[in-house]
From TrEMBL:
MF-aspect GO terms: DNA binding; DNA-binding transcription factor activity, RNA polymerase II-specific
Protein name, as recorded: VENT1 protein
Originating organism: Psilopogon haemacephalus (coppersmith barbet)
Family membership: Belongs to the BAR homeobox family.
Protein keywords: DNA-binding, Homeobox, Nucleus
PROSITE patterns for this protein: HOMEOBOX_1, HOMEOBOX_2
Annotated region of DNA binding: 26-85
InterPro entries (UniProt xref): HD, HD_metazoa, Homeobox_CS, Homeobox_TF, Homeodomain-like_sf
Location in or out of the cell: Nucleus
């Protein structure tokens, strides 16, 4: 007898797809920041918690990262600070 939960039957494929496996979109590889990049990002974060567009472009160019990577790093860092407080 089945308990009625899909996970007991063919739910394994769905779980693999949700994890980025068989059918789902592939997740982006995690960015491995260098220690120099992290140091510069942390120093900038200490000065200002939010970056405007022009500041983000300059920092991205200086660190050889994309603007999206800078934006995401700052979002994650603000959340880390919030958790610490």
């Amino acid at each position: 007898e089945s308990s009625g939960y899909e996970s007991e039957s063919a739910g394994g494929d769905r779980a693999a797809a949700a994890a980025g496996g068989i059918r789902g979109r592939q997740r982006r590889a995690r960015t491995a920041f260098t220690s120099e990049q992290v140091c510069r990002l942390e120093k900038t974060f200490q000065r200002q918690k939010y970056l405007g567009g022009s500041e983000r472009r300059k920092l991205a160019a200086a660190l050889h990262l994309s603007e999206v990577q800078i934006k995401t790093w700052f979002q994650n860092r603000r959340m880390k600070l919030k958790r610490q407080i």
